[in-house]
Queue: 2 jobs
Job 1
Amino acid sequence: MAREVTCIFIAIYTVILVFGCVRLAQGREAYEQFLVALGAPSSIGFHLLALVFAIYHSVTWFNLAPKALPMHFGDKTVPPAAIAAAHYIGWVLISVALLLIAGAF
Amino acid sequence: MAKSNKPIIWGPFAAGGTVTALLTPVLILLTLFVALGRVPDGLAYDNLYAFAQHALAKIFIFVVLTLSLWSAAHRLRITCYDFGLRQDTLVAALVYLAAAIGTVVVLGSLLAI
Amino acid sequence: MNGRAIELHVLRYNPETDSEPHWQQYAVPYNEEWVVLDALNYVKAHLDPTLSYRWSCHMAVCGSCGMMVNGDPKLSCKAFLRDLPQIIRVEPLAHFPIERDLVTVVEDFMGKLARVKPYLIAKEPKAVEDGEYRQTPAELKRYKQYAQCINCMLCYAACPEYGLIPKFIGPGAIALAHRYNLDSRDGGRDERQQEIATDEGVWECTFVGACSQVCPKHVDPAAALQQVKIASTVDWFREHLMPWLNK
């Protein structure tokens, strides 16, 4: 059940991103106001909560992925742990790449 | 028995679930940096606007946001049902309508950039 | 023997005399090696010959003795007294109508099993004189896990969707359809898809996963159903976006 409830936080966060998109299209002032509004205490609080739930979604999703994606090569079967591990590695790589591209460091 | 059209909902749900699993945490981190006052260079207006002008960037943003919206909408529908809200047709209509509106809004914004 | 007694609370129901099910208690001696089935057999032999329940092999291969033990779907021949508390509640398998005592009406599952055509529909039919359908160990490995199903219906008792929506074809039947779809000798997937790629087929499943948790043979029906969902989704997009590929 907890894994399903994560969608509420991901939904709200995605709506925030949609707002960001709209503000970006509306021009410099609108977008920079959006960035400032993100700094509100309620926004920071939401971000922290959403981060926890989003990570929980990722972990539960990747742990279940091997069930949906069995891989056989001849009479060898890829161990489910390896399939999950591949997802985790991809997750870390993509996250680091995005952080670097966005200039977060 | 007729084969179901559920795949048109489930396909985006599965794809969106994977996309949100891979991207949402790092995106939250990025906007969290913004919220804490440290706007990463790539999210400054000039850089982000310039990025969003490329066709590939628009496609990327559109795909990520749309799949996230539809995936969350479908899961919300199931969650409502599991919590006892059994008017499934009404809930489905509401959540998918919300996702559709979001999709159109994203599309409109991206095309305006 | 340490003289400890087990308190067996059994849900009884006699359709000829009872208006509704009721509990009955029995004191059963504790034995280190006993399973709940042994306790039931003790009751029937020494305390109450009217108690009705299904069982056969007593070794978890026939699938007959499924019932609820302290709220969990279990094979009574695989539920050891030593792993259970002193008070043991035994009820008929959940989500099935009660026929009598611990015997449930299983017609719903049997009908669904038949609908998914759980038998080989040969891809290239051969006459008997032309020899066997051959298969490599690798090809066997693809589906072997799903062939372990003993039709015990514990997964149906565990599945909350089946409990809510009785027309759901259910984990066991769909996992068995998948077993044949994965069999290299089989060519009946399209036929089975007509039954399982429907709203009351695989699309009723929300991947709760309880079915796989209770399966005594480690079939992992939840995995089978997700694989069927992916295959059905690929089918759907191919049929609708590339109609020229349809036969």
Job 2
Amino acid sequence: MSAVDELLLKWANGDLTSSEKEELSQHYSMADLDSFIVDTGKLQIETSNVKTEWAKLAHQIQEGKLKRNSRNKYKFLTWLIPLVILIAVGVWYVISLGPDKKIENKTYEPMLIAMEDNTEIMLSPGSSLSYNKSKFANNRKVWLEGRAYFDVRVKGEFSVVTENSITYVLGTTFDIWELADDNLVVQCFTGKVNVSTSKGMEATLIAGQKYTQSIGIGDIVNQNKPKWLSNSIIFEVVPLSIVYKDLERYYPIKFVGEISNLNFNGELPTDNLQKVTEILNAVTSDTYKIENDTVVVSKSE
Amino acid sequence: MSICKEDIFKKLFERCLPNVQRFIRSKGLGIEASADMAQDAFLRLWNNCKKVTEDKALSFLFTVSNNLIIDSARRTKTKQKYLTELVVSHENIDPEYQLQMTDFKSKLEATIDSMSKGSREVFMMSRFNDMTYKEIAEALSLSVKAVEKRMSLALKHLVDNEIIKRK
């Protein structure tokens, strides 16, 4: 960027000093620039009436509260009846249908798991997968802690249970990622998936769509497989404290120091820690420094 | 501060709604569609009020709005065609100036329409949401340098199209 371009940039942000104004005036008429500010100041993007919009939103919020209250009136039934049934079948369920095999990825690399039905699962570092080996042929259900990419090759129901969700698929490729603190991201690359969370949210995703628990349904951009399989992770509106925890799965390090909860949006590599710190240094207001097996986070002055 | 109390949320809504609607409209949606989308974004903020602090609310709303726009375009199978629509404020403008403004407005709209997406977004937020580069960076979860780069390209585009004239 030339010096003049830098000055123009500062002008547009209202940051010019007197001497900088003098310098810019060698290249642009300040009267013309002032007119631009005045004229664009007289233009606006039309928006709706705030009071009217609040009335609409308040009504929706109230409707949401009323629905919760009417559910609460008979709440005792919603747990009493299932509890009785649950106790009756609980022991039987644990013995006969619960997982009896657990696979843990204790490395810093993705782990390939080939299931008995030819489903291929890439298990991310620090994650674990459990299933009932003897019943799997008739009941394709797995329990996931962490993150995994699934390539379900045989059609028919396949379900993935995490701590806070269940995802049902019908012969498809998809990625499920339950970060810490109740953040869930499900990406559907081919086929169709249905996601239900413990908070009552439900979403059906078709190929090319993703569901992020804090944002909703969106598009998967420029990917036909999750980026973490190609050594990078995309984070969307994720608190930095959780970003650090996830990075600790891929690198043998710990983040220490002033851990904030500001949100991070961006892509970080899983095979280049130096690059990670360069990116974080550039886009956040904190300073990151690698010291042996720690990354020290401190506030910038 | 928690935004889960209705009176606090209302103040946040009143403060942020015009910004959010302008952000959505700057992506080409009409006033009614942008009002509906903004409602949806605020409702999601309300439903996630325990997770989002007040200072991060606007960034959350912009991110949600962006995803809603992409999702909407995908469902209707249309590529979001960008069309700037600005209105002239009618505060004490004489008819002759009004005519000049109309002409300026058309040229500016056409120039903004032909900007790249990233530049357009930053330019609109700077000029019509009256945000500094630092505020835009926080709202879009970008670095200030990234915002400055996009704004620089926007200004270059305005110069190339003689909306801003060099000596």
